[in-house]
Amino acid sequence: MLLLDPARTHLVVIDVQARLMPAIFDGARVLANARRLVAIAGLLDIPVLLTEHNPAGLGGTVPELADSGPVIAKMSFDACGDPDFVAALPDDDEELVLCGCEAHVCLGQTALGLMSLGRRVIVVQDAVGSRSPESKAVALRRLERHGAEIVTTEMVAFEWLRSAEHPQFRAVLNLIK
């Protein structure tokens, strides 16, 4: 199926960390969209998994997202290099929607690692950041060339809902506006 299936989706939030976010270009927008995705996932009972890269150096996940789901601390840029992350992944047929930082480092390498494991990877471009816009743009082009789907927060929200008749439609719409 080409549309996202909310019954088979996992949201993966990569390294949205307190000391990193101030350095991210348009970081407030990236964080706002990551928060929207996490909130929508909560409304729709979609599981969330978070990573933190070198939390001793970069701090923990930003407080707004810290309690969103299990957190995997890692040192490898590609989270797939950490056995705890791989063990926490859902079944092979689950779609993995990724947001976070940095597009050209940890998020990018994790997306490539997941695709090398045969996973369907969806990257939410307006909820992904890098320190420079050029790095983000190049990373997104590379990921798309290698098979990642590039979408927006609204695309994810409305694909998860499927219909204006969904019981959570109004609540999700309020988060999008």
Automatic annotation (TrEMBL):
<protein>
    <submittedName>
        <fullName>Isochorismatase family protein</fullName>
    </submittedName>
</protein>
<dbReference type="Pfam" id="PF00857">
    <property type="entry name" value="Isochorismatase"/>
</dbReference>
<feature type="domain" description="Isochorismatase-like">
    <location>
        <begin position="10"/>
        <end position="154"/>
    </location>
</feature>
<dbReference type="InterPro" id="IPR000868">
    <property type="entry name" value="Isochorismatase-like_dom"/>
</dbReference>
<dbReference type="InterPro" id="IPR036380">
    <property type="entry name" value="Isochorismatase-like_sf"/>
</dbReference>
<dbReference type="InterPro" id="IPR050993">
    <property type="entry name" value="Isochorismatase_domain"/>
</dbReference>
